[in-house]
Amino acid sequence: MHDVSPWLMAWAIGIEWDAPAVLANDDKNTGIEPYGGRYFEATADASPTESWMAMMLDHVAAEEASYGNTMPLAFVNWVTTDPLAHPEEPLAREDLVGVDPMHVRPTDAWPGGYFAGYHVYPYYPDFQRYEPGIADFVHGGRVDPYAGLLTKYREHHAGVPFVVLEYGVPTGMAKAHEEPHGRNQGDHTEQRQAAINADLLETISEVGLTGGYVFAWTDEWFKLTWNTMDYEIADRRAIWMNAWTNEAHFGLVASEPGLAGTLVLDGDGSEWPEHSRAIAETRQAIREVRAANDEGFLYLKLVTDRPETWTVAPITIGFDVLDGEGAGIGLSGAFTEADYRLVIDGSDARIEVRSGADPMLNAYQRFGFFPPAESDPGGWNLHRLITNRPYTLFDGTETEVEIDPAGQLHHGTTDVNDPAFDSRSTWFAAEDTIEVRVPWQAIGFSDPSTHTVFDVSPDGVIDHITVDRIGITVASGSETIPTTGYEWEDWNRVSYTERIKAGSGVFAQTVIDLSR
Protein backbone atom coordinates (compact mmCIF):
# COMPACT_ATOMS: atom_id res chain seq x y z
CA MET A 1 0.00 0.00 0.00
CA HIS A 2 1.10 3.55 -0.70
CA ASP A 3 0.14 6.94 0.71
CA VAL A 4 -0.95 9.09 -2.24
CA SER A 5 -2.52 11.86 -0.15
CA PRO A 6 0.15 14.45 -1.09
CA TRP A 7 -1.11 14.28 -4.68
CA LEU A 8 -4.85 14.30 -3.90
CA MET A 9 -6.55 17.36 -5.40
CA ALA A 10 -10.15 16.71 -4.40
CA TRP A 11 -12.78 14.05 -3.76
CA ALA A 12 -15.74 13.43 -6.08
CA ILE A 13 -17.68 10.57 -4.54
CA GLY A 14 -20.34 8.34 -6.05
CA ILE A 15 -21.44 7.35 -9.54
CA GLU A 16 -23.88 8.38 -12.25
CA TRP A 17 -27.07 7.89 -10.25
CA ASP A 18 -29.79 5.58 -11.55
CA ALA A 19 -32.86 7.79 -11.83
CA PRO A 20 -35.49 5.16 -10.83
CA ALA A 21 -33.36 4.20 -7.81
CA VAL A 22 -33.12 7.85 -6.75
CA LEU A 23 -36.87 8.27 -7.10
CA ALA A 24 -37.53 5.06 -5.13
CA ASN A 25 -35.16 6.19 -2.38
CA ASP A 26 -36.85 9.59 -2.16
CA ASP A 27 -40.29 7.97 -1.97
CA LYS A 28 -39.25 5.45 0.68
CA ASN A 29 -37.63 8.07 2.89
CA THR A 30 -40.11 10.91 2.52
CA GLY A 31 -40.19 13.16 5.57
CA ILE A 32 -36.76 12.45 7.01
CA GLU A 33 -35.00 15.33 8.68
CA PRO A 34 -32.26 17.03 6.60
CA TYR A 35 -28.87 15.74 7.59
CA GLY A 36 -26.72 17.99 9.72
CA GLY A 37 -23.13 16.94 10.25
CA ARG A 38 -19.99 18.50 11.58
CA TYR A 39 -18.52 19.21 8.16
CA PHE A 40 -21.46 18.96 5.71
CA GLU A 41 -25.18 19.47 5.99
CA ALA A 42 -28.30 19.35 3.86
CA THR A 43 -30.54 22.38 3.38
CA ALA A 44 -34.14 22.44 4.57
CA ASP A 45 -35.45 21.71 1.06
CA ALA A 46 -33.09 18.78 0.40
CA SER A 47 -34.56 15.51 -0.83
CA PRO A 48 -33.76 12.28 1.05
CA THR A 49 -31.16 11.41 -1.60
CA GLU A 50 -29.55 14.84 -1.32
CA SER A 51 -29.54 14.50 2.47
CA TRP A 52 -27.79 11.14 2.10
CA MET A 53 -25.22 12.82 -0.16
CA ALA A 54 -24.52 15.34 2.59
CA MET A 55 -24.03 12.45 5.02
CA MET A 56 -21.56 10.69 2.71
CA LEU A 57 -19.59 13.90 2.15
CA ASP A 58 -19.51 14.45 5.90
CA HIS A 59 -18.13 10.92 6.36
CA VAL A 60 -15.32 11.52 3.84
CA ALA A 61 -14.56 14.89 5.39
CA ALA A 62 -14.35 13.34 8.85
CA GLU A 63 -11.92 10.70 7.62
CA GLU A 64 -9.69 13.31 6.01
CA ALA A 65 -9.91 15.62 9.02
CA SER A 66 -8.68 12.80 11.26
CA TYR A 67 -5.39 13.06 9.33
CA GLY A 68 -5.36 16.83 9.50
CA ASN A 69 -6.37 17.21 5.85
CA THR A 70 -8.93 19.34 4.06
CA MET A 71 -9.65 19.70 0.35
CA PRO A 72 -12.56 20.40 -2.04
CA LEU A 73 -15.31 17.76 -2.00
CA ALA A 74 -18.21 17.00 -4.34
CA PHE A 75 -20.55 14.19 -5.23
CA VAL A 76 -20.80 12.90 -8.78
CA ASN A 77 -23.85 13.86 -10.80
CA TRP A 78 -24.82 13.66 -14.46
CA VAL A 79 -27.30 15.13 -16.90
CA THR A 80 -29.93 12.43 -16.33
CA THR A 81 -30.33 13.44 -12.66
CA ASP A 82 -29.62 17.15 -12.98
CA PRO A 83 -32.00 19.46 -11.07
CA LEU A 84 -33.29 21.26 -14.17
CA ALA A 85 -36.57 20.48 -15.93
CA HIS A 86 -36.25 19.31 -19.54
CA PRO A 87 -39.81 19.02 -20.94
CA GLU A 88 -38.47 18.39 -24.46
CA GLU A 89 -36.66 15.21 -23.38
CA PRO A 90 -38.32 12.36 -25.35
CA LEU A 91 -37.41 9.60 -22.87
CA ALA A 92 -39.13 10.06 -19.51
CA ARG A 93 -36.42 8.11 -17.66
CA GLU A 94 -33.83 10.74 -18.63
CA ASP A 95 -35.74 13.52 -16.81
CA LEU A 96 -37.43 11.49 -14.09
CA VAL A 97 -35.89 13.07 -11.00
CA GLY A 98 -33.25 15.61 -10.04
CA VAL A 99 -30.41 15.65 -7.54
CA ASP A 100 -29.35 19.19 -6.67
CA PRO A 101 -25.84 19.96 -5.37
CA MET A 102 -27.20 23.34 -4.20
CA HIS A 103 -29.12 21.49 -1.46
CA VAL A 104 -25.84 20.41 0.17
CA ARG A 105 -23.30 22.74 1.73
CA PRO A 106 -20.15 22.65 3.86
CA THR A 107 -20.07 24.04 7.37
CA ASP A 108 -17.48 26.47 8.67
CA ALA A 109 -15.58 23.47 10.06
CA TRP A 110 -14.64 22.42 6.51
CA PRO A 111 -12.34 25.07 4.97
CA GLY A 112 -11.46 22.87 1.98
CA GLY A 113 -14.63 23.89 0.16
CA TYR A 114 -17.28 22.25 -1.99
CA PHE A 115 -18.02 22.09 -5.72
CA ALA A 116 -20.59 20.67 -8.12
CA GLY A 117 -19.28 17.89 -10.34
CA TYR A 118 -21.14 16.48 -13.35
CA HIS A 119 -20.46 14.08 -16.20
CA VAL A 120 -21.57 16.02 -19.30
CA TYR A 121 -21.26 14.67 -22.84
CA PRO A 122 -22.45 16.49 -25.96
CA TYR A 123 -24.39 13.61 -27.57
CA TYR A 124 -26.82 12.51 -24.82
CA PRO A 125 -29.52 12.89 -23.53
CA ASP A 126 -31.47 13.93 -26.60
CA PHE A 127 -33.17 17.00 -25.13
CA GLN A 128 -29.98 18.82 -26.18
CA ARG A 129 -31.29 18.49 -29.75
CA TYR A 130 -34.65 20.09 -28.98
CA GLU A 131 -34.72 22.30 -25.88
CA PRO A 132 -34.97 26.04 -26.60
CA GLY A 133 -32.06 27.89 -25.07
CA ILE A 134 -29.87 24.81 -25.50
CA ALA A 135 -30.47 23.43 -29.01
CA ASP A 136 -30.31 26.93 -30.51
CA PHE A 137 -27.69 28.42 -28.15
CA VAL A 138 -25.06 30.46 -30.00
CA HIS A 139 -21.51 30.40 -28.68
CA GLY A 140 -18.41 31.62 -30.47
CA GLY A 141 -20.42 32.52 -33.54
CA ARG A 142 -21.98 29.08 -34.01
CA VAL A 143 -24.90 27.06 -32.63
CA ASP A 144 -23.51 24.94 -29.79
CA PRO A 145 -25.99 23.00 -27.59
CA TYR A 146 -23.16 21.82 -25.34
CA ALA A 147 -22.27 25.40 -24.48
CA GLY A 148 -25.95 26.11 -23.93
CA LEU A 149 -26.33 23.27 -21.44
CA LEU A 150 -23.16 24.21 -19.58
CA THR A 151 -24.32 27.82 -19.37
CA LYS A 152 -27.58 26.72 -17.75
CA TYR A 153 -25.59 24.68 -15.25
CA ARG A 154 -23.35 27.63 -14.44
CA GLU A 155 -26.40 29.80 -13.82
CA HIS A 156 -28.17 27.27 -11.62
CA HIS A 157 -25.06 26.56 -9.53
CA ALA A 158 -24.14 30.22 -9.02
CA GLY A 159 -21.84 30.62 -6.03
CA VAL A 160 -20.53 27.05 -6.22
CA PRO A 161 -17.62 26.07 -8.50
CA PHE A 162 -18.77 23.76 -11.32
CA VAL A 163 -16.43 21.08 -12.70
CA VAL A 164 -17.19 18.77 -15.62
CA LEU A 165 -15.89 15.53 -14.15
CA GLU A 166 -16.23 13.63 -17.43
CA TYR A 167 -16.44 14.79 -21.03
CA GLY A 168 -15.09 13.60 -24.38
CA VAL A 169 -15.75 11.46 -27.43
CA PRO A 170 -14.39 8.02 -28.35
CA THR A 171 -12.56 6.67 -31.35
CA GLY A 172 -13.43 3.12 -32.48
CA MET A 173 -15.04 1.89 -35.70
CA ALA A 174 -18.71 2.31 -34.77
CA LYS A 175 -20.94 4.61 -32.78
CA ALA A 176 -23.78 4.32 -30.30
CA HIS A 177 -25.38 7.77 -30.62
CA GLU A 178 -25.23 10.78 -32.89
CA GLU A 179 -25.03 14.49 -32.17
CA PRO A 180 -26.28 17.02 -34.74
CA HIS A 181 -22.91 18.79 -34.91
CA GLY A 182 -20.79 15.67 -35.45
CA ARG A 183 -19.61 15.13 -31.88
CA ASN A 184 -20.92 11.58 -32.02
CA GLN A 185 -20.46 8.76 -29.54
CA GLY A 186 -17.83 6.93 -31.56
CA ASP A 187 -16.48 6.48 -35.10
CA HIS A 188 -13.91 9.27 -34.86
CA THR A 189 -10.36 9.20 -36.10
CA GLU A 190 -7.82 9.72 -33.35
CA GLN A 191 -7.01 13.12 -34.80
CA ARG A 192 -10.69 14.10 -34.82
CA GLN A 193 -11.15 12.84 -31.25
CA ALA A 194 -8.30 15.04 -30.04
CA ALA A 195 -9.69 18.08 -31.85
CA ILE A 196 -13.21 17.60 -30.45
CA ASN A 197 -11.90 17.03 -26.91
CA ALA A 198 -9.82 20.20 -27.20
CA ASP A 199 -12.86 22.14 -28.43
CA LEU A 200 -15.04 20.83 -25.60
CA LEU A 201 -12.43 21.84 -23.03
CA GLU A 202 -12.21 25.32 -24.53
CA THR A 203 -16.00 25.57 -24.32
CA ILE A 204 -15.94 24.52 -20.66
CA SER A 205 -13.47 27.33 -20.01
CA GLU A 206 -15.20 29.96 -22.16
CA VAL A 207 -18.61 29.59 -20.50
CA GLY A 208 -16.99 30.25 -17.13
CA LEU A 209 -16.79 26.83 -15.48
CA THR A 210 -14.01 25.89 -13.08
CA GLY A 211 -12.54 23.03 -15.11
CA GLY A 212 -13.02 19.66 -16.77
CA TYR A 213 -11.60 16.14 -16.82
CA VAL A 214 -11.44 14.37 -20.16
CA PHE A 215 -12.60 10.78 -20.14
CA ALA A 216 -10.42 8.74 -20.22
CA TRP A 217 -6.69 8.21 -19.90
CA THR A 218 -6.58 4.81 -21.61
CA ASP A 219 -8.89 2.58 -23.64
CA GLU A 220 -10.90 0.07 -21.61
CA TRP A 221 -11.68 -3.19 -23.40
CA PHE A 222 -14.05 -4.36 -20.67
CA LYS A 223 -16.56 -1.52 -21.16
CA LEU A 224 -20.04 -2.24 -22.54
CA THR A 225 -22.37 -0.09 -24.61
CA TRP A 226 -26.07 -0.46 -25.24
CA ASN A 227 -26.07 -1.32 -28.96
CA THR A 228 -23.42 -4.06 -28.83
CA MET A 229 -23.62 -5.50 -25.30
CA ASP A 230 -26.45 -7.94 -26.03
CA TYR A 231 -24.24 -9.67 -28.58
CA GLU A 232 -21.30 -10.04 -26.16
CA ILE A 233 -20.56 -12.26 -23.18
CA ALA A 234 -20.12 -9.66 -20.47
CA ASP A 235 -17.71 -11.50 -18.18
CA ARG A 236 -15.31 -12.13 -21.10
CA ARG A 237 -15.17 -8.56 -22.41
CA ALA A 238 -11.74 -7.78 -20.93
CA ILE A 239 -10.28 -10.76 -22.84
CA TRP A 240 -10.82 -9.27 -26.32
CA MET A 241 -11.21 -5.89 -27.99
CA ASN A 242 -14.49 -5.08 -29.72
CA ALA A 243 -13.73 -2.37 -32.28
CA TRP A 244 -17.50 -1.75 -32.56
CA THR A 245 -18.02 -0.99 -28.84
CA ASN A 246 -17.38 2.74 -28.61
CA GLU A 247 -17.15 2.71 -24.80
CA ALA A 248 -13.92 0.73 -25.07
CA HIS A 249 -12.17 3.52 -27.01
CA PHE A 250 -12.45 6.78 -25.04
CA GLY A 251 -8.76 6.81 -24.09
CA LEU A 252 -6.12 9.35 -24.93
CA VAL A 253 -3.88 6.27 -24.89
CA ALA A 254 -4.70 3.46 -27.32
CA SER A 255 -4.66 -0.09 -25.95
CA GLU A 256 -4.18 -2.20 -29.04
CA PRO A 257 -4.36 -5.98 -29.53
CA GLY A 258 -1.25 -8.08 -30.02
CA LEU A 259 -0.67 -7.82 -33.78
CA ALA A 260 -1.08 -4.04 -33.97
CA GLY A 261 2.09 -2.59 -35.40
CA THR A 262 3.12 -6.04 -36.63
CA LEU A 263 0.58 -6.83 -39.33
CA VAL A 264 0.25 -3.34 -40.78
CA LEU A 265 -2.27 -2.47 -43.47
CA ASP A 266 -0.07 -0.62 -45.95
CA GLY A 267 0.01 -2.69 -49.15
CA ASP A 268 3.45 -4.13 -48.45
CA GLY A 269 2.63 -7.53 -46.96
CA SER A 270 6.23 -8.69 -46.52
CA GLU A 271 5.70 -9.26 -42.77
CA TRP A 272 2.79 -11.69 -43.25
CA PRO A 273 4.67 -14.98 -43.79
CA GLU A 274 6.19 -14.78 -40.32
CA HIS A 275 2.95 -13.95 -38.49
CA SER A 276 0.23 -15.79 -40.42
CA ARG A 277 -0.49 -19.06 -42.18
CA ALA A 278 -1.56 -19.80 -45.73
CA ILE A 279 -5.12 -21.11 -46.03
CA ALA A 280 -5.16 -21.16 -49.86
CA GLU A 281 -2.51 -21.29 -52.59
CA THR A 282 -3.76 -21.54 -56.18
CA ARG A 283 -3.07 -20.67 -59.79
CA GLN A 284 -6.41 -18.87 -60.01
CA ALA A 285 -7.23 -15.18 -59.85
CA ILE A 286 -6.54 -15.25 -56.10
CA ARG A 287 -3.06 -16.77 -55.84
CA GLU A 288 -2.76 -16.82 -52.06
CA VAL A 289 -4.86 -16.27 -48.97
CA ARG A 290 -3.20 -15.91 -45.57
CA ALA A 291 -4.89 -15.56 -42.17
CA ALA A 292 -4.00 -14.57 -38.63
CA ASN A 293 -5.80 -13.31 -35.55
CA ASP A 294 -5.33 -11.38 -32.35
CA GLU A 295 -7.58 -10.12 -29.57
CA GLY A 296 -9.28 -7.59 -31.84
CA PHE A 297 -9.35 -8.83 -35.42
CA LEU A 298 -9.27 -11.62 -37.94
CA TYR A 299 -6.54 -10.65 -40.42
CA LEU A 300 -6.56 -11.71 -44.08
CA LYS A 301 -4.10 -11.10 -46.89
CA LEU A 302 -5.01 -11.82 -50.52
CA VAL A 303 -2.51 -11.87 -53.37
CA THR A 304 -4.06 -11.54 -56.83
CA ASP A 305 -2.75 -12.64 -60.23
CA ARG A 306 -2.97 -9.11 -61.66
CA PRO A 307 -2.74 -5.64 -60.17
CA GLU A 308 -5.96 -4.07 -58.92
CA THR A 309 -8.26 -6.89 -59.99
CA TRP A 310 -10.86 -5.65 -57.47
CA THR A 311 -11.45 -2.60 -59.65
CA VAL A 312 -12.47 -4.84 -62.58
CA ALA A 313 -14.69 -7.35 -60.78
CA PRO A 314 -15.72 -7.56 -57.12
CA ILE A 315 -13.76 -9.73 -54.73
CA THR A 316 -15.95 -11.37 -52.11
CA ILE A 317 -14.87 -13.19 -48.96
CA GLY A 318 -17.50 -15.43 -47.40
CA PHE A 319 -17.42 -16.31 -43.70
CA ASP A 320 -19.33 -19.41 -42.56
CA VAL A 321 -19.68 -19.28 -38.76
CA LEU A 322 -23.09 -20.86 -38.02
CA ASP A 323 -23.22 -24.61 -38.63
CA GLY A 324 -25.99 -25.82 -40.89
CA GLU A 325 -27.00 -22.34 -42.02
CA GLY A 326 -25.83 -19.94 -44.67
CA ALA A 327 -26.62 -18.34 -48.01
CA GLY A 328 -24.80 -18.11 -51.30
CA ILE A 329 -22.41 -15.19 -51.47
CA GLY A 330 -23.88 -14.78 -54.93
CA LEU A 331 -21.73 -12.15 -56.67
CA SER A 332 -21.02 -12.53 -60.40
CA GLY A 333 -22.12 -16.14 -60.38
CA ALA A 334 -19.90 -17.29 -57.51
CA PHE A 335 -21.64 -19.50 -54.98
CA THR A 336 -20.75 -20.83 -51.56
CA GLU A 337 -22.41 -20.98 -48.17
CA ALA A 338 -21.75 -18.09 -45.81
CA ASP A 339 -23.33 -16.09 -42.98
CA TYR A 340 -21.29 -12.94 -43.53
CA ARG A 341 -19.48 -11.65 -46.57
CA LEU A 342 -16.90 -8.95 -47.17
CA VAL A 343 -17.29 -7.32 -50.58
CA ILE A 344 -14.47 -5.29 -52.14
CA ASP A 345 -15.67 -3.49 -55.24
CA GLY A 346 -13.39 -0.78 -56.52
CA SER A 347 -12.95 1.78 -53.77
CA ASP A 348 -15.89 0.41 -51.78
CA ALA A 349 -15.71 -2.35 -49.17
CA ARG A 350 -18.41 -3.51 -46.82
CA ILE A 351 -19.39 -6.31 -44.45
CA GLU A 352 -22.81 -7.76 -45.16
CA VAL A 353 -24.86 -10.31 -43.24
CA ARG A 354 -27.41 -12.68 -44.70
CA SER A 355 -30.95 -11.56 -43.91
CA GLY A 356 -31.78 -14.64 -41.86
CA ALA A 357 -28.87 -13.93 -39.50
CA ASP A 358 -29.04 -10.12 -39.51
CA PRO A 359 -28.82 -9.29 -35.78
CA MET A 360 -30.26 -5.80 -36.00
CA LEU A 361 -33.10 -6.86 -38.28
CA ASN A 362 -34.05 -9.82 -36.09
CA ALA A 363 -33.74 -7.82 -32.88
CA TYR A 364 -35.89 -4.87 -33.98
CA GLN A 365 -38.04 -5.71 -37.02
CA ARG A 366 -40.86 -7.04 -34.84
CA PHE A 367 -41.26 -3.46 -33.59
CA GLY A 368 -41.77 -2.22 -37.15
CA PHE A 369 -38.47 -0.37 -37.39
CA PHE A 370 -37.48 -1.80 -40.80
CA PRO A 371 -39.33 -2.62 -44.04
CA PRO A 372 -40.26 -6.30 -44.55
CA ALA A 373 -38.30 -6.37 -47.84
CA GLU A 374 -35.07 -6.51 -45.87
CA SER A 375 -36.02 -9.93 -44.50
CA ASP A 376 -35.71 -11.76 -47.84
CA PRO A 377 -34.17 -15.07 -46.69
CA GLY A 378 -31.84 -15.15 -49.67
CA GLY A 379 -30.82 -11.54 -49.37
CA TRP A 380 -27.90 -9.70 -47.87
CA ASN A 381 -27.94 -6.57 -45.72
CA LEU A 382 -25.21 -4.19 -44.75
CA HIS A 383 -24.13 -5.02 -41.19
CA ARG A 384 -25.47 -2.15 -39.08
CA LEU A 385 -25.92 -1.01 -35.50
CA ILE A 386 -28.90 0.86 -34.11
CA THR A 387 -28.03 4.23 -32.57
CA ASN A 388 -31.48 5.53 -31.61
CA ARG A 389 -34.87 3.89 -31.40
CA PRO A 390 -37.87 5.85 -32.75
CA TYR A 391 -39.67 7.99 -30.18
CA THR A 392 -42.44 10.58 -29.93
CA LEU A 393 -41.33 14.17 -29.39
CA PHE A 394 -43.06 16.68 -27.11
CA ASP A 395 -44.94 18.12 -30.09
CA GLY A 396 -46.20 14.73 -31.26
CA THR A 397 -43.63 14.27 -34.02
CA GLU A 398 -42.62 10.63 -34.58
CA THR A 399 -38.91 10.20 -35.24
CA GLU A 400 -37.36 7.47 -37.36
CA VAL A 401 -34.91 4.82 -36.26
CA GLU A 402 -31.29 5.97 -36.48
CA ILE A 403 -28.61 3.53 -37.61
CA ASP A 404 -24.86 3.36 -37.97
CA PRO A 405 -23.62 1.70 -41.18
CA ALA A 406 -20.81 0.05 -39.23
CA GLY A 407 -20.29 -2.53 -41.95
CA GLN A 408 -19.17 0.17 -44.39
CA LEU A 409 -15.42 -0.23 -44.14
CA HIS A 410 -12.70 2.43 -44.13
CA HIS A 411 -9.86 2.08 -46.63
CA GLY A 412 -6.55 3.32 -45.28
CA THR A 413 -3.31 2.53 -43.59
CA THR A 414 -2.72 1.45 -39.99
CA ASP A 415 0.90 2.62 -40.14
CA VAL A 416 1.05 5.11 -37.27
CA ASN A 417 4.05 6.79 -38.89
CA ASP A 418 2.13 7.59 -42.06
CA PRO A 419 0.43 11.03 -42.14
CA ALA A 420 -2.62 9.28 -43.63
CA PHE A 421 -2.95 6.94 -40.61
CA ASP A 422 -6.56 6.22 -39.65
CA SER A 423 -7.20 3.95 -36.67
CA ARG A 424 -10.57 3.00 -38.20
CA SER A 425 -8.94 1.46 -41.29
CA THR A 426 -9.99 -2.11 -42.02
CA TRP A 427 -8.58 -2.68 -45.50
CA PHE A 428 -5.79 -1.53 -47.76
CA ALA A 429 -5.31 -2.55 -51.38
CA ALA A 430 -2.42 -1.78 -53.70
CA GLU A 431 -0.90 -3.50 -56.72
CA ASP A 432 -1.55 -7.24 -56.23
CA THR A 433 -2.11 -7.19 -52.45
CA ILE A 434 -5.24 -6.77 -50.35
CA GLU A 435 -4.86 -6.61 -46.57
CA VAL A 436 -7.89 -6.81 -44.31
CA ARG A 437 -8.55 -6.79 -40.58
CA VAL A 438 -12.12 -7.76 -39.70
CA PRO A 439 -13.54 -6.78 -36.28
CA TRP A 440 -14.75 -9.92 -34.53
CA GLN A 441 -18.31 -8.69 -34.04
CA ALA A 442 -18.55 -7.85 -37.74
CA ILE A 443 -18.58 -11.60 -38.49
CA GLY A 444 -20.77 -12.66 -35.60
CA PHE A 445 -18.47 -13.33 -32.66
CA SER A 446 -19.64 -12.67 -29.12
CA ASP A 447 -16.36 -13.96 -27.65
CA PRO A 448 -13.56 -15.00 -30.02
CA SER A 449 -11.43 -16.10 -27.07
CA THR A 450 -13.78 -19.08 -26.61
CA HIS A 451 -14.90 -19.45 -30.26
CA THR A 452 -18.39 -18.20 -29.36
CA VAL A 453 -20.73 -16.64 -31.92
CA PHE A 454 -24.17 -15.07 -31.56
CA ASP A 455 -27.32 -16.06 -33.42
CA VAL A 456 -30.38 -13.82 -33.23
CA SER A 457 -33.70 -15.50 -33.97
CA PRO A 458 -36.54 -13.67 -35.78
CA ASP A 459 -38.24 -13.11 -32.41
CA GLY A 460 -35.15 -11.37 -31.04
CA VAL A 461 -33.81 -14.17 -28.83
CA ILE A 462 -30.00 -14.23 -28.80
CA ASP A 463 -28.21 -17.57 -28.54
CA HIS A 464 -24.46 -17.93 -27.99
CA ILE A 465 -22.98 -20.92 -29.81
CA THR A 466 -19.48 -22.39 -29.68
CA VAL A 467 -17.91 -23.16 -33.07
CA ASP A 468 -14.69 -24.92 -34.02
CA ARG A 469 -13.55 -22.73 -36.89
CA ILE A 470 -14.47 -20.15 -39.50
CA GLY A 471 -15.20 -21.41 -42.99
CA ILE A 472 -13.69 -18.97 -45.51
CA THR A 473 -14.27 -18.87 -49.26
CA VAL A 474 -13.01 -16.21 -51.67
CA ALA A 475 -14.59 -15.32 -54.99
CA SER A 476 -13.16 -13.16 -57.74
CA GLY A 477 -15.77 -12.44 -60.35
CA SER A 478 -17.29 -15.85 -61.22
CA GLU A 479 -14.31 -17.79 -59.91
CA THR A 480 -14.57 -19.41 -56.47
CA ILE A 481 -11.49 -20.19 -54.40
CA PRO A 482 -12.03 -22.48 -51.39
CA THR A 483 -9.71 -22.30 -48.40
CA THR A 484 -8.97 -24.60 -45.50
CA GLY A 485 -10.79 -22.15 -43.25
CA TYR A 486 -9.30 -20.79 -40.07
CA GLU A 487 -8.82 -22.26 -36.62
CA TRP A 488 -7.12 -20.75 -33.58
CA GLU A 489 -6.47 -21.49 -29.94
CA ASP A 490 -8.72 -20.24 -27.15
CA TRP A 491 -7.07 -17.66 -24.90
CA ASN A 492 -7.45 -16.41 -21.34
CA ARG A 493 -4.51 -14.01 -21.30
CA VAL A 494 -4.11 -11.06 -23.63
CA SER A 495 -1.19 -9.38 -25.32
CA TYR A 496 -1.47 -5.67 -26.03
CA THR A 497 0.54 -2.53 -26.64
CA GLU A 498 -0.09 1.05 -25.67
CA ARG A 499 0.63 4.30 -27.49
CA ILE A 500 -0.46 7.91 -27.32
CA LYS A 501 -3.19 8.41 -29.91
CA ALA A 502 -2.51 10.44 -33.03
CA GLY A 503 -3.35 14.13 -32.73
CA SER A 504 -2.89 14.16 -28.97
CA GLY A 505 -0.57 17.17 -29.28
CA VAL A 506 -3.57 19.32 -30.21
CA PHE A 507 -5.36 18.40 -27.00
CA ALA A 508 -2.22 18.71 -24.88
CA GLN A 509 -1.54 22.19 -26.24
CA THR A 510 -5.08 23.27 -25.41
CA VAL A 511 -4.62 22.08 -21.83
CA ILE A 512 -1.35 24.03 -21.61
CA ASP A 513 -2.88 27.18 -23.09
CA LEU A 514 -5.87 27.12 -20.75
CA SER A 515 -3.64 26.52 -17.74
CA ARG A 516 -1.67 29.74 -18.24
Concise account of the structure shown:
This protein has eight helices and 30 strands. By secondary structure, the chain is of the alpha+beta class. It folds into two domains: 5-226 and 501-515, no CATH class; 259-493, no CATH class.
How would you describe this structure to a colleague?
The protein is an alpha+beta fold. It has two domains: 5-226 and 501-515, no CATH class; 259-493, no CATH class. 16% of the residues lie in helices and 26% in strands. The protein has helices at 19-28, 48-65, 127-130, 145-156, 190-206, 272-275, 359-364, 504-515; strands spanning 11-13, 40-42, 73-78, 104-106, 116-119, 138-139, 142-143, 162-167, 211-214, 253-257, 277-281, 286-293, 297-304, 315-320, 327-328, 337-338, 340-345, 348-354, 380-382, 385-388, 402-404, 410-411, 425-430, 433-439, 445-447, 452-456, 462-466, 471-476, 479-482, 496-500. The strands form nine sheets. A six-stranded mixed sheet has the order 11-12-13-24-23-22. The protein is elongated. The mean pLDDT is 94.
What is the strand and helix layout of this fold?
Elements: E1 11-13, H1 19-28, E2 40-42, H2 48-65, E3 73-78, E4 104-106, E5 116-119, H3 127-130, E6 138-139, E7 142-143, H4 145-156, E8 162-167, H5 190-206, E9 211-214, E10 253-257, H6 272-275, E11 277-281, E12 286-293, E13 297-304, E14 315-320, E15 327-328, E16 337-338, E17 340-345, E18 348-354, H7 359-364, E19 380-382, E20 385-388, E21 402-404, E22 410-411, E23 425-430, E24 433-439, E25 445-447, E26 452-456, E27 462-466, E28 471-476, E29 479-482, E30 496-500, H8 504-515
Parallel strand pairs: 1-3, 3-5, 5-8, 8-9, 22-23
Antiparallel strand pairs: 2-4, 6-7, 10-30, 11-12, 12-13, 13-24, 14-17, 14-28, 15-16, 17-18, 18-19, 20-21, 23-24, 25-26, 26-27, 28-29
